[in-house]
Structures
1.
Amino acid sequence: MSLGDPLPAAFYDRDPAAVARELLGAVLRHDSNDGVISGRIVETEAYLGPHDPASHSAVGRTARTWHMFGPPGTAYVYFIYGMHWCVNAVVREDGYGAAVLIRALEPLEGLPLMRARRPKARHDRELLNGPGKLCAALGITRAQDGLPLTGGSRLTICAGDVVPDAAVAVTPRIGISKAADWPLRYVLR
DNA sequence: ACGCGGATGGCCT
DNA sequence: GGCCATCCGCGTA
């Protein structure tokens, strides 16, 4: 595995917090029908599995959460608040039900297309700084739910520069009510 | 620079 | 029926 190659399934088949930490600096890329859009991952959250009360997998394997229980390196895309899509990378072994939510990116490729898909963004800093915003900008919807992120699909995560611990902040997860004090959010500054 | 509430729909109970 | 792993606009400073 070197810089720019897709991260393999073995990268994801590990402790969710470690994967969330190490996804910082990696690159999420969507080869959409309208063009390639990519960004550097700068914020993530770990959802540990069925025993984590804030995790979607805590309700079991339903139609909505189906792909969260898929093999490591699968995209789990869900619809929330009647308007927004959010994208996760499935972690741990096939059938377990853990994932890492991608919460923010820094723009790399496809700036004009991002701006067209995010007309409300008043400057480029607001294009990808939220889980719903980055899915809108990249064109990620239910159509990408279940795709492998490990290569061979149009949605991939590729290795980036190594990020030193001094550049990483760890905080509680955002926007949840259960297990809201667990420090599983990773931010690159 | 904050804080608050409405939008909006699928899904679980 | 009520709850969301959110975003945006409007209000007060």
Note: The mean pLDDT of chain A is 97.
2.
Amino acid sequence: MSKPKINVYWFRKALRLHDNAPLLEASKSKHPLLPIFILDPLFLPDTRADYDDELASGALAGENQFQFLMECLQDLNENLKSMNSQLCVFLAQNPEEVFEQILKEFDVDSLYYEKDSEPYANERDAKIENLFKENSTKTVSAWGQTLTDLDEIKSHFKKTPKVYRSFMKVMGNHGDEIIVKPCEAVKSVPCLPKNLGNLQIFDGIPTMKEIGFPKKHEHTPFFGGETAALERMEKKLADKKWIAKFEKPKTSPATLEASTTVLSPYFALGCLSVRLFHFKVQKVYESQKSHAKPPMSLHGQLYFREWFYYLSYTIPNFHQMKGNPLCLQVDWDHNKEFIEKWHHGQTGFPWIDAIMRKLRQEGWIHHLARHSAACFLTRGQLWQNWEEGKKIFAMYLLDGDYALNSANWMWLSASAFFNSYYRVYGTESFPKKYDKSAKMVRKYCPELAKFPDKYIYCPWEAPKSVQKMAGCVIGEDYPDRIVDEKTAKQENMAKMKAAYKRKIRGNPNSVELKKRGEKRKEAPKVERKTKKKRFGKKKSKAD
DNA sequence: ACTACCGTTGTACAC
DNA sequence: CGTGTACAACGGTAG
């Protein structure tokens, strides 16, 4: 009996039907199409502690992003259903297992997927490519998470573009050729294979509970999915003047309603195409008399993203200080108490605490709020390694993204790209520029809500009588400051100066590159337990 | 080798 | 209120 011939589209990111070139190609084939998504345990919450390296390399989503991801899958499934297909979700120990199942059941003509630049993905995909090669099966993949083809643009750079400007030079000179035009949306797909045989497909899209998130998760203000993404994009694009005028530094980090587009969560998981947005913004620009220019404009933001993706794809150890040739080597402290207080919004600095609490609740904070919090944790006040902050951000951000999170933390800690380390964000002066009455502090640090404007960003300076009147005594109802801002700033600046004098950047050759999976072998117990708990329920094969 | 210039998004204070 | 300047001063790039 010969095996049925099919194609497989593998969704990982690119959780969309629009501007998805490999999916479009698959949709034009005459063979049945199996659209799959594989949830491997590296995505799951309770493996996080054991997989620190994988978290660093981008495999894991935090709870907020995970919920968002599930909504993307639901939306995708709905859209596929309306085309008489469906998304087939696999809960499996690793993707190889799934493809072995598929190859056993079917004669796969081609495997289609969008390329992914993260180290975790590179390794995963290399294994799968290998498996298909051994099986003499064709694979079709393309870049789509970025504006350009990251392999192709390599040839345009003689050396690493270490400043935005040199990256932009290439974009400026070759933009028309290297920025890929969006392709048409998929409107129909071939039917599913008639018989799914013994494939161990999860029934529908797993809920947070089914996957093992312990308690009910408070939803962020943002809902995942391609449908929501396109809606949001169109809504923003409708205000043409706003689009044309947009300059990032002129937007406020202190408003309750987001002052920017908040499309980043959709870009991060690929339920919105950056190419489509770039193209649509271009159309708006053309319709207006004048428009903002990079680096501040919306296009400028996309080019920053592109630059960081390119760097993260080509620079070794991009996610850490050690062995990262771009990253200044700094003798950061490791003070667990500081890190935890920063993490939980308990530093005693209302502006910082409000930012961190908002981040945890809502999964999105303004770019400059991220700057403020990141500067505070690293070179500004607490002198902690940026990697710690990056990991904590990754746990809560809806737009958590390997390339962008790493790059921005290096930027803010003045470890790379940016070196004016003497420019330190104040916890009072900075937010005051945007909002003297501190709406954000009053909302996210409600214990401080009754303080008068004069003391809202510096409640410790309020006389006891004022504190009592506000119903909030500092040190009792709200924490006292964990450092003295001025002293810490001065000390840290001096340390930063010394680090710059040493001029040491990471040496990739001096770092023993940990092989992925090593840790897994060291801790097989945890993994097996996880597998049973999670996956034993619906499936029978393992048991 | 040297110099001049530039860099998306700071603060504090003088006027 | 805005505008200008000192603060203390970096690395990358182009010439």
Note: The CA atoms of residues 14 and 270 of chain A lie 4 Å apart.
